[in-house]
Amino acid sequence: MYDPELRIETARLMLRQPRMAVWRHLMTAVGSWTVMGFGMFSALEWRTGKWLGRVGATMPAASQAVARRLGSVNRGPGRLPAPLEDSVVELWGQTREQWQVNRLAVGRHCVAKQAMRRGATS
Question: Is the sign of the CA dihedral 22, 25, 29, 34 positive or negative?
Answer without folding.
Answer: positive
